[in-house]
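Hi there, hope your week has been kind to you so far. Please have a think about how the structure follows from the sequence. I've dropped the whole record in just underneath, so have a look:

_____
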Amino acid sequence: MASAPEEEEEVQGPERERKKKIAEQFNIIGASYEVKPKELFSGDRAEDAKEAKSKELNAMLEKRFHPAEDLTNKQKAKALDCRYVFVIKRPSQEQIAEGEPGKVKARIVAQELKCIYQLAHELVHSDTPGIPAMRLLMAMMDFSKHRVSTTDFRVAYLQGNKFENGYRILMRLTDPETKETEYFWCDGCIYGMQRAGKVWADTFAEFLKQIGFSELENAPSIYKYDSTRAGEEIKISGVFNVLENEKGETPDMTLRKRGSIIICCHVDDPLITTEGKADEEWIHDMLGRRFETNGSNFLEPAGNTIDYLSMRLSLGEDMKLRIDNQAKIEKFLEEKGMTDANATKTPLSYSQLKEFLKEDEELDGVAHREYQADIGKFGWLVATTHPVLCTVTSILASYNAAPTVGAAKAVKHVYRYLVHAKDLCLVNDPDVSGGFEIWSDSDFAGMYSVNGDIRSRSGSALTFNGMIFAWRSAFQSCRMTSYTSGDEFSIDSEIAQATAGSEVYAMAETMKLARHFGFVAEEKGIKFTYPIEIKVDASAAKGFAESVGKVSKMKHIDVRMAWVKELRNRNLVTFERVPGTENLADFFTKLLLGVQFTKWEAAMMQKLPLAKGA
């Protein structure tokens, strides 16, 4: 046991050295990153750190903290610890152009550890909008009339409603520079508290509902302005500035009929869409009167871009909306030491994976965690901007529990593909129309020749006006939905017995996905037509769904089950037969190569245009 700390130090050492090198540069394009106080106060950014520390403490004294005096030792012993966290922010484009470093930001964070005391789920849970729902919102934008913007809430969690009935918590804070300890009474949630996220989310939602918005029922944390409430008086609970703004205007405290205004808010990052500039100015004015912000950012053609989570939204002179993750990918490549690696045009092939997996020695603890971290990074890119990584990430994630040396080499090959794919982006092209298009496909036991896995894989793809906004690639796991009374045996996952069977399961999964986004679209005000038309390339599965043709290899499927009845409901869903080479979902069922891969990569993503002067 005594050797454990030394081993941990050995693990963290290289990572710390890597962060030091990054900290010395400061003006690289990458995500924000945390810096240890000891390193910061001993370096050439010490004065910046002191300023950030002072600014944060003053903000806390203004919003949450009150000096605690004449405390007993018993009270001090029960105080909740909090600490300073220092972050180097990603430099803005202007800072990069001027060669200036990223800003040092400090935050006081409570150490309310769940392992010591965990609050009930309903007291801490707050929803966040699904990223596919956000992509659908961006796909529906027509920039001849729509506008996209955001705002930056200043220390959002400190703007949540305070504790009720004068309740307060005693906090203990140690200065990382002087090592002095101070005590404060805290009258509301701060960062690090388990309830902080929910309190903020409830505060924000409450205000939006007071000014005419309603939350989508099928997409939590997405809010749409309800013009049917026009004429109602606006009544605000909490702080609200009714004085004149910079334009000399006072707020209109009556709800008016407005165009479509939708706010997609991920914790404290709101993405706002409006029809026209007047509604955009109104919502930003109202948000600024209720909450403290660092200003607003408006998406403009060939002008301002918007950072949303790690994604960058840009609007070109051609009025094409582009969504990329270039900065995040460059950071991942740098952390892996593969910034200058030779690029490859495809992530992985079956033959390469089979060859890699011959090295079947399991990774040790450190390498095991690194493998899982890499899969997590790929997973983030799949979840946000890169459908091209979906299938390979799903396959490699199946080795998370016991990764091998060969699996780690496969991961490294995917990083080489990221060198090529770092500047790929999703595109909303104003010249493309067509509304919703939906594809479904499966690959029957596709991994059997590689590792003996007999599971089949389902693939789904949904686009709106040519922009892909939802995708899925996953092994099939089909379980019984009912059992006979008295049965005491367990039933393992069912494995598809034939190609047609795997296609039917995939069609059912795609239909579920399509129905969900149909509900979301209807709430957003987007026309969604029934019956849903799903493109498939399997005649036998299409025949089963249409209840025609011979189904001898699918007699084990109980056609009385609800999902089969839905699949056969012609008022709900229909299926169109397309050639396999024209089925976009084929991309999400297998590892394609060469021309096939390049074709679908180009259909889903485009290269970012070069900056002027590049």
